[in-house]
Every structure is written in C-alpha cells, then in structure tokens.
Amino acid sequence: MAPPTSTVQPPSASQPQEAMMAMLSQIAQMVHQSHREIMDLKQETAELKIANASLERQVRDGLAYNIYNSRSGTPGFMTPAPPSPQLRPKLSPFLNHSIPTITTSAPEHTHYRPSPLSDHSLTAFPFVSRDIPGFYVVIPAGGAGTRLWPLSREGHPKFLLDLTLKGRSLIQATWDRLLPLTSSSRTTIVAGPSHVKSIMDQLPDLLGENLFCEPGPKDSMAAIGLAAAILASRDPEAVIGSFAADHMISGDDAFLSAVAEAVEVARKNYLVTIGIAPSHPSTGFGYIRLGEKINMKEAPNARLVSNFKEKPDARTAASYIATGNYRWNAGMFVTKAVVLLDLLHDYKPEMAEGLRKIAAAWDNEQEREKVLSEVWPELEKIPIDNAVAEPAAAEGRVAVVPATFGWDDVGDFSSLADLLPAEANQPRILGDPHLVLTEQVAGGIVVPGSGRLITCLGVDDLVIVDMPDTLLVTTRARSQEVKRIVKKAREAGFKNLL
C-alpha cells in the first residue's frame, strides 16, 4: 500500500516578510518608547535644574535680607553694590513659579501664542526664555528726587537708593525686572556724568557702550530720543521700551506680559504707552483716556489713546475714575526707534535733526564730544509726553495697553511710607529700627540716617529724616511740598547739602 501523499505546503515568500515587518514594528515601538523616556528624563532634569537654581536664589536672597536688615548691616538708604544678576534665574514674589533660566541670545525663530492662563498675556514656545528678539530696553536715569530730600541728593538720587530694604536699589530692581525680556547687550541707560560711576558700580553687567552719558539734563524727550537715535543707527529694526529707573512695580508677570503686548503693537508703527489701573483719585499723576480697541490678535487689550490729561484736581480725578475709561500715565513708552524719530521730526524737527547728528558721531569719541558740545545745549528741554505723545495721540498714532500690575513712582515720603512694612498704627522705619523709640505715635515715617537715637512721643503722621548733615521734619500730608524747602535751602546758600 502506497504511503499517503503529504498535504503540507512549503512556506510562502510572504510569511518571512510579514515576520520581518512585525519584528521591525516591534523594534520601532521600542525605539519610540525609549526616545520618549529619554525626553521625559531630559525634561525632569531641566525642571530640577530650574528648581535648584530657584532654591539657591531664595537662599541668597534670605541671607542678603538678614545681612542688610541686621544692626551690623548698612541701613536701607546706604545701598551697597551687590553683584548684578549675572544672567541667573530671577524669582518673583508675585509668581507661583520661577522665571526660567535667562538666555543671552534668542532662538532663530520664536513664536508667540495666547497664554494658557487666559489672561491675555503672551508666552513663547517651545523655548523656555521670555526673550523678545529685537527688543531694546532704555532706562532714563535722571532727576534728583527732590521730594525725597535729604534722603535723595543730586549726587546720589533716589534711583541709586534701596528704598524697600531688600538689598537692591531702584535701578537694580528695574534691571532685574526687565532682563527676562532682553539681555545685557540690549539694555541701555541714559544718565548724567555725575552718576555714571555709581551706575556702573551697581550694574557690573551693563556694557560700557550701552551707557549713554548726556552732558546735562534736558528732560525725557532728549534722553529717550538720544537712545533711540543711537539704537536706530545700530539696528534699524530696533523696538525700544523706555522705563524709568526709579519706579516701583509689583506683579512682575503682569508687567512682563503688558510689555510683550506693547511690543506687538509697536511693530505696527504705533507709539505705545502702558496705562496703570488707578487705585485712587490721585492728583499727582497724569491720566490717559482710553479710546477705541485696535483689534489686534497679538494684542487683545490694546486700545487707541483718546488723549492725555495733565495732573487733575481731586474732584476731576474722582470723575475720571468713575468713568472707568482712564488710566494713570506712568511714562512707559514702547515703539520702534525709527518711528519715534519720525514722530519727533514731524513735531520737533530741530530736535530730531540734532539727535541724528549726535548719533552719527557717537562711535567716534573725539567727534562725539565735539558734536555734543555744539548740539546738546541747543536742544529743547521738554518731556516726551508734550513733545510727541500728545500731538501724535490727536492723530491716532498712539496706543495704550491697559495693565493690572501695581505701580508707584515713589514721588514723596508719603508714598514711600506706604511701601514699607510696619505694625498697626506704628511709623514706618527706613533703616535700623533699634534707633527709633516711640510712645503713643501713629503713622508717619522715620529715617534714622545719622546713627543717633530718635524718640517720638504723642505725634502722628510725621516725616522725620535724620541724616548726618541735616534734619527734615514735616508731615505726610505736606510731603509733596518738600521741594519748596529744597528751593529755600538753595537760595540760602546750602547748595552743598542738596
């Protein structure tokens, strides 16, 4: 009997192929899983580095606070010159997270999208830096802070003082606040010759070429215009933001978001200001009347400026606030450098021509001094508001970004007192609290700058500033009038104390 014929078929050519494809698919899945695990590990490592840097900064800040507030430390007004941030991460007390590590150069392509927090702020992705390419910071550092005399002097004005007892002067705090949006290479300061050394001591990361020395005070238009002219010659596409050196700001994240939004509007050839939500009907600040919305996707809060209002009386200020259509004018301006120069050419052509002439000679030190000596004395002394902002607003060329951060120009001892901590009904003390003894005293501010004991009995809301060479006694209600006593001291021949 013949053996049965086998029914087993030889393996087809497709079977090894299918097995190979299955094996390759499995390998690809393993590689993908491994890649994802590596990316997760990198992300955890990056987050850990940021957390460690934040913790180190908190420890440093805590040590610095203990040093500067101990009896053996210096009082607040004798600000030491601690090192500048050196591009380290900066923690904000107003955030629930740290600002990521600051980079000195921006990525080649940066994209912005609405914030996931739905707060109309802008965030960059996929990069961790908040750097805005092409954005230059201008910090005008001028004035003598007359209303804070004798704490603030012409040779050592308020922007060089630590008025918050945190170990950083106002100009250092301004530098810290703005650095995440730019870099030290794009941060510039305009100052007078008598303040150059002190500024360089307090800001060692400031590049010498970015400190523009004006021969004499000519108000904000000449100072900001000088920076705009120089920066426009260096980078014709530069967007500049001008921020005073001596203002106080709380709410760093809201501030940075407002500036980022203002930059987007400025790229559309507007002169942009940032409007502060008024907390009370102040008679010491100018006001901005909000106009129509601009309807820019990148800047959803931006509106045209209807007009600028000078410092009003109390009743007018109250009526402004009641409408909800007014904001404080903090003197913050963001625009393209060339746009500012064009506006200046339209409204103040002689000043525009003079500043362009100075900028053309700026890189040649010998030629610069010659041109400055010829041109600068002839420039008009005028604020930027009067020179370009007000006439440009009338033509619809000025925008405003309403902001929510806290702001104060620390204009007198009354506003300074509000910024300092104190027990209920006790005076604020700027300096060593062990040098001040009080009994039945409420409110006020005491500055024990001479090192001797100050005692107060049964007096309320006094301002006492005791310096080694002079003593000021007034009330908080009259602190805005300190400049009158400064004028009288000048007329009486006490210029050495001013």
TrEMBL record:
Q: Does the keyword Nucleotidyltransferase apply?
A: yes
Q: Which residues form the MannoseP isomerase/GMP-like beta-helix domain?
A: 444-488
What are the alphabetically sorted keywords of the record?
Nucleotidyltransferase, Transferase
Q: Which GO terms describe its molecular function?
A: mannose-1-phosphate guanylyltransferase (GTP) activity
Biological processes, Gene Ontology terms: GDP-mannose biosynthetic process
CDD domains per the record? Answer: GDP-M1P_Guanylyltransferase
Residues in Nucleotidyl transferase domain copies: 138-421
Identify the InterPro entries for this entry: GMPP_N, ManC/GMP-like_b-helix, Mannose-6P_isomerase_type2, NTP_transferase_dom, Nucleotide-diphossugar_trans
Record protein name field: Mannose-1-phosphate guanylyltransferase
